[in-house]
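## Example record

The block below lists the input lines for one assembly entry, exactly as stored, with component labels intact.
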Amino acid sequence: MTASTTIIANIAAIQARIAAAQQYSASLTPHLTLMAVSKTRSAEDIAAALKAGIEHIGENYLQEAVAKQAELQDKNICWHFIGPIQSNKTRTVAEHFSWVHSVDRAKILSRLNEQRPPALGPLNICLQVNINNEPSKAGASIADIPALAELALSLPQLRLRGLMAIPANTDDPAQQRRNFAAVRKLLNSLRQHFPAAQLDTLSMGMSGDMEAAIAEGATILRIGSDIFGPRASPAPE
Ligand SMILES: *Cc1c(COP(=O)(O)O)cnc(C)c1O
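Predicted structure tokens for the full assembly:
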């Protein structure tokens, strides 16, 4: 098989896994978006995913993402930034993406708001929460999320949509579910604090834990290796 037919077959397999997982939780996740995470992958690989019906593409590295965006500018793609954000790179993020999932501090929110070109409309934001309090991991603490949400909701060029999490790595499905349940509960508490906000997004679930994420109400799955194959370099945290 060529790489392209493999990618298309992998996406069909993921869609079957999603359908199977949703049998038990379709009421939790009526609108589930499958995002293909294409870090380290070529524009050609992304084009194959588009042929299989993917519309949402997630990228972690800014320079790499912008180069692929130029190659794919004639395609209809909703681009999501999901990687670490340095404050001197916020302008490029604000100008090149529809969504940012990896915001974990106030300074980044303020800069994205200032630098978002108004003609593009508000930038969709997920706050990244470090749900297991891992010292090595990006993401705000649970305690810091309400104040960040309040700030995000006050900024006119941003549209706060919800939370993103990369829980502690575990193969235990019960532990995976507990971690994702904690993210869901945090989003529910934000909804109670900010009833006027449209907090509709739980960005959670990767290749190794998507079933658990669906069971706990994920609305955006971020799938890389099970679509494009294993990566040469390890996934950054
Ligand atoms: C790489 C990455 C993914 C995809 O991970 P896979 O295990 O390859 O599916 C999802 N989210 C983030 C933030 C990533 O960096």
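The mean pLDDT is 95. Residues 146 and 207 are 29 Å apart (CA to CA).
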